[in-house]
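Why predict the complex rather than its parts? Because the way molecules touch one another can change local conformation, and only a joint prediction can capture that. The input here totals 573 residues.
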Amino acid sequence: MIWNETKECMSRDEILNMQSARLKKTVSRVYHNVEFYRKKMQQLGLEPGDIKGIEDLNKLPFTTKEDLRDNYPFGLFAVPQSEVIRVHASSGTTGKATVVGYTRRDIEIWQECVTRVLAMAGIGANDRIQVAYGYGLFTGGLGLHYGAENLGATVIPMSTGNTQRLITMMEDFEVTAIACTPSYLLHIAETLEEVGKTDSIKLKAAICGAEPWTDNMRKEIETKLNLKAYDIYGLSEILGPGVAADCDAHCGLHVYEDHFVPEIINPDTLAPCKDGEVGELVFTTITKEALPLFRYRTKDLTSITYEPCECGRTLARISRFKGRSDDMLIIRGVNVFPSQVEAALLEMGETSPHYILIVDRVNNLDVLEIQVEVEERFFSDEIRKLEGLTKKIAHVLQSALGLSVKVTLVEPKTIARSEGKAKRVIDKRKLI
Amino acid sequence: MIRQLSIFIQNEIGSVAGVTAILKENNINLRAIASFDTPQFAILRIVVDQPEKAKTLLINSGFAVTMSEAIAIELEDKPGVLHDLLQVIADAGFGVNYIYSIVFRDGKVPLIIINTDNLQATKDILKEKGYSVAEQEDIIL
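Output of the joint prediction:
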């Protein structure tokens, strides 16, 4: 069903008018409350009054993850701390977390967006939904949780990590919907097959996101579990899960344009892309109170269409993601930058800085292997010392990345050196 | 004492051959070889007639190599002699890290190569007990 028809089925003119009004208010508030943006606008010779409507959006400065890091932790917040009722955080490129905040109104908007997503997937008050994203600083668990409660569904807050218990409850509680990463759902499907319980579960819908996946993976999930699977997109900087999601047509993800204005730009020239052309997705928030962002560069590559969808919604649709314009990897829902690995190895100082990351999917679970060259000066001829080194690297990387890592020592000079930007990653998952 | 080279190699097809190819090309004679493996990597220990030259060549070819000393002892070819030797080392309170052997010596008795956690003291005690401890020149034919 369409949860909020007045917002999800507006005419293009209505959308643009609403965006114009909300953008003007946001710009004025941000200019007065956030020093970072005020300075940036002043450098551009821009005053709040110069933004007369959505057509002036491209006059505003871009925002990057580095800007969030430089203003760590709360420097970009536009409200006093007393109005912030929650923060979430995700890992940054060099160890410092990216911190985001929400006012009560922000949380309400977030749950409204997630509720729209769940309703779009045919989930309602009579459903029982297991939220199997991580609960905590990661936005996945609590984001889906509040949205599902707002819908009136019965929420089972599983979090992650205990597949056996999840399956027991799925069967005993007659769970009808699940929210988790697509790779975890495939893992659940295979575990169900192994124990011969596929036919005894009542799942009808799955909301999957937090990592890139393909249409083929969706079909595999749907066939194995006899349900319908939907793609949910989001990023904590803008909201968390619920910025966009797909409907039964599976022809792109509907962006909630009454709250987030999308643009697609050429990541090199920063010039706007034509509709249908692949470029970097950029978002401007027009209702966020605690952390409003202008033209935030997501680094996600996609294309956009404003054609109304056969489902009746008129919201812009972004296509399935075509990759990233930076080197960030998403492994089991965790953002990993190769630079984090490099920083951790250099800090440890017991290996060469020559490494390569190999990401693969084994039994539908992402595995991260790091190969590190054994350097002459760190080479011990005792096996136990080399094994100790392997364990130490694994431990250091696990705490730096928040992800378990398999470490393999390799011979010196076996990792290809390249001129310019070194190739640090081999991704065997074939997700794009 | 004799000098041995320890070489880090990955546990994969052809990795030992990569080392022996370099030795062959440069006419270096292998006296002993032993590989100590884990699931992912191995340490190859070799005794050669020209250890310094072999080390330089291997490092230049991109291997991680260390040179270290080990004790080489002549043992008669009859039952129980290795046990007696190990008992001497154990009674002296030293731990054995690894053992391998040189068999081909043109008719001479085989040598056992031993590494312990205290090489010099082990060598002294073995000599005291009457064992014949070989030096580097003894293994060059």
